Amino acid sequence: MTERERSEEPGDGLSRRGLLGRASAMAVGAAVVSTSSPGAAFASDTAAAVPPAVGEHLVDVRLSVNGRPVRLRADPRWTLLDTLRERLELTGTKKGCDRGQCGACTVHVDGRRVLSCLTLAAAADGSQVRTIEGLADGDELHPMQQAFIDHDGFQCGACTSGQIMSAVALVDEGHAASDDEIREYMSGNICRCSAYPFIVDAVKAASKVMR
Amino acid sequence: MRAYDFAAPRSVRSALDKADAGSAYLAGGTTLVDLMKLEVMTPSRVVDINRLPLRGVSLDREGLHIGALDRMSDVAEHRLVRTHYPVISRALELGASPQLRNMASIGGNLLQRSRCGYFRDLSTPCNKREPGSGCTALEGQNRTHAILGTSDACVATHPSDLAVALIALDAAVHLNGSGGPRTVPLADFYLLPGQTPHLENTLRPGELITGITVPALRWAVNSTYLKIRDRASYEFGLTSAAVALNVRGTTIVEARVAVGGVGTRPWRLHAVEHALAGRPLTAATYEQAAEHATDGARPLRHNAFKIPLLRRTLVRALTELGDAR
Ligand SMILES: Cc1cc2nc3c(=O)[nH]c(=O)nc-3n(C[C@H](O)[C@H](O)[C@H](O)COP(=O)(O)OP(=O)(O)OC[C@H]3O[C@@H](n4cnc5c(N)ncnc54)[C@H](O)[C@@H]3O)c2cc1C
Ligand code: FES
Ligand code: FES
Fold this sequence. Notes:
The structure holds 2 protein chains of 2 kinds.
Chain A: H1 3-6, H2 16-36, E1 59-65, E2 68-74, H3 80-87, E3 106-109, E4 112-115, E5 128-130, H4 143-150, H5 160-173, H6 179-185, H7 196-210
Parallel strand pairs in A: 1-5
Antiparallel strand pairs in A: 1-2, 3-4, 3-5
Helix pairs in contact in A: 4-7, 5-7
Chain B: E1 5-7, H1 12-18, E2 23-26, H2 32-37, E3 45-48, E4 57-59, E5 63-67, H3 72-77, H4 79-84, H5 86-93, H6 98-103, H7 106-110, H8 161-168, E6 172-177, E7 180-185, H9 186-189, E8 208-215, E9 223-228, E10 239-248, E11 251-260, E12 267-268, H10 270-276, H11 283-291, H12 306-324
Parallel strand pairs in B: 1-3, 2-3
Antiparallel strand pairs in B: 4-5, 5-8, 6-7, 6-8, 9-10, 10-11, 11-12
Helix pairs in contact in B: 5-8, 10-11, 11-12
Bound molecules: flavin-adenine dinucleotide and FE2/S2 (inorganic) cluster (FES) (2 copies).
């Protein structure tokens, strides 16, 4: 783990409050701002430039991230989450627990929602990754993003990009038939602010538009 | 996380060649990556097996075959599984979360490690993680721990829901290693902790799970899985029950019963099955049979509630199945 990654861990210099404060400033903002100019998420115009990795056993990883090809030499320990946030500067995807227990890091890999904190970048080699930054169509928000705004589906925003990525997949999977089904299939996304009722409203509303 | 080298072979042969006693296979990574971060697992090499051709669900005269790399979500929603073995679909659907089920494989599920907080915490003794260091849970927080199959060296619960359903159905695991392929009944696969809780199963070093087979059982169509949790979803079970009933008229001809959340390995209840066989489908039958569920149970300071809870879980599962007919 690099020094930079270490300093991202709650308790390592960053207080919980500080972390949440920072996250709330970024969450919806990052999701919206960077999607309105997709290219800005990457340092260079072609394949994304990433800082050189250190360690003995580096592996070549090729990904398509929100439709853009990315090539990197990765430390096999890097998770997809840290790779997106720290190497590709796509900070819309959030780190909550880093242990598979909260859903904040949810992204789509080859069209399926997964937890990027438990996915190794090396194991994702060759796959198509979609993050919150890849949802909007230019300046037009994805119907699920719009529905979360319209229905107050968040407070601090720390869980929101994960909720939205999960919700988009849920509708595609055909799991939006009833409130109970939405609740069950959104249960992998914890919201500390307990925006749950409004999240269900948002998912219901968006699912009608998405069909 | 400790450093390791990484390989992603494309054939079973080459995966077996790359594996040794210090390596770990990577399937969905939902156990392995978590435990590598915690440094509870510290392999020197990670062998990514996701490119191996170990996928596919099929049904034939022998029974149901599932590949080691099939994902929990795909198997849960598979038409053949849902129709012929609903207990497997339910056990899978009630586990983890949609995201985790999209990642987690069937082979990995059977080999997931303990969720005991002391096993996951390097700063506390744990015989499973560090043989001989002691068991902190014995006198510590043990509300979620086992009441069946425990020893004075380990009281950790086996966490898999799937394994409970499979053990009720007499499933077998197919393995392949340097000694060639072999098949082991799941009932003989998992070990009791005894004095060696770090040995959890009979898998040999470097051996690969290639798939499982669930024997044909026509009346498994009448089966279910009930799981009782601290919250409604995304949580391990405090207690759970996998039940299948073969009913003629209003009489139970034969039953399959296994329970989870209570045993140090997935726990088959032959005594309950015997108590159900030949009896009428009545509340009294369920109550009397469920009495046997906790034969030999040894509660700890915080988990005695699991004794009545397990019996009620079983009665409710049997009632739901009986009523559904
Ligand atoms: C927050 C959370 C909640 C969860 N809740 C539940 C729950 O309610 N119920 C439940 O049953 N499970 C639950 N799980 C556990 C989850 O189901 C397992 O982590 C998962 O099934 C493991 O599968 P995997 O493919 O990700 O395994 P991996 O993490 O890839 O591997 C697990 C272990 O098996 C080995 N391995 C994997 N595949 C093979 C193979 N084919 N041959 C030989 N060795 C192999 C690996 O080396 C490793 O040691 C939960 C997990 C998390 C993180
Ligand atoms: S950060 Fe991945 S599940 Fe919490
Ligand atoms: S909006 Fe604050 S955690 Fe969900």
